[in-house]
Amino acid sequence: MQSRLEEVKDPSAARISSSRPFPVRLLQFFLLFLVIGIGASFLSMYMIRHFGIHNVALVQSTFRPCFQTPGTIESFIMPPVNLMHKMNDTELFWRASFDTRIKDYPFRRVPKIAFMFLTKGPLPMAPLWEKFFKGHEQLYSIYVHSLPSYTPDFSPSSVFYRRHIPSQVAEWGMMSMCDAERRLLANALLDISNEWFILLSESCIPLQNFSIIYRYISRSWYSFMGAVDEPGPYGRGRYEDSMAPEINISDWRKGSQWFEINRKLAIRIVEDSTYYPKLRDFCLPHKCYVDEHYFQTMLTITMPHLLANRSLTYVDWSRGGAHPATFGKDDIKEDFFKRILVDQTCIYNGQPTSTCFLFARKFAPNALEPLLDIAPRVLGI
Questions:
Q1: Residue 280 has pLDDT above 70, yes or no
Q2: Which of 185, 25, 183, 153 shows the shortest CA–CA distance to 90?
Q3: Residue 48: pLDDT band by 50, 70, 90 thresholds?
Q4: pLDDT for 291-339, tens place per residue?
Q5: Full-model pTM
Q6: Which end of the chain, N or C, is surrounded by fewer C-beta atoms within 10 Å?
Q7: Coil vs helix vs strand at 197
Q8: What 3-state DSSP class applies to 360?
Q9: What is the DSSP secondary-structure string of 249-264?
Q10: Whole-angstrom Cα distance, residue 82 to residue 168?
Q11: Which helix (H) or strand (E) holds 313?
């Protein structure tokens, strides 16, 4: 009894005796966490100092949520913002060959003309083209294929600013020239609003104002590519029997390199793998010039009913030689344009017309100033 009373008399002693010492393992765990945290902080500071803060942002940017907001129709129909993509030709042509089977578009589609400039470098006629395009921004697209070594210097206000596509060397009379044309078509096809495609050079000029050209092309029943069965050494004489059976001599056609075609024909050219190797292997320079035969023959075989069988680009071959005439400043007179714009006859949608050419070449750089002077009066630009 007395011993129990003595235990109750000292309550503090009872509390001390009932408490347990602090667990050693828990203390070690906290110390380990502290060391790891300090080490991670020092490592992070070291990486930021020596490798830059952008590396951290790059690592963070790789995170993607498990669920993303579904894309809208706009995300599929918007044209590429930057034309300088990283695709090679095989990837580009594959992507460009996509086509919609349902032609009733579920959005407001304004059909555009793709103006494709195949050049060596500068565009000396750019000031005239600037005037031509002004005020029609929703109805056209521009694509430029130049030598890879050329660096354009157009101002941000120019319609040609950042309109160059990834390019390769294109040699006259070689398949690389047709490769460049297919490359232009493929890049233009990436914009679903492009409905018509016009191939031009740096020496080309428009012969009408934009409204007339847009109306002429958009209302035409046909695409414009010359494709004639020409006898003699410069026509059938360039054919090789090795092209058969894909291409027979009765299929062989010749025509101008400069064309205007619709979207259906553009896709057909880009996706072709049947006729390309035949022309590449057997239409060789000094006897055969592939840019005068490839598209002309292929489309005559596959889609002849869609061709008007004439070009919209005026070229003067009357002076003879391997190349057409070049027009300089002394040629730029009203009578010169009258011969092109009035003194002509052709068929448009089954009816005769004198409006046969919408573009012309070749114009020397020194023709620019007189062209700018005469354009408002004669060309309506």
A1: yes
A2: 183
A3: low
A4: 999 999 999 999 999 999 999 999 998 877 677 889 999 999 999 999 9
A5: 0.80
A6: N
A7: strand
A8: strand
A9: TTT--B--S--EEEHH
A10: 18
A11: strand 313-314
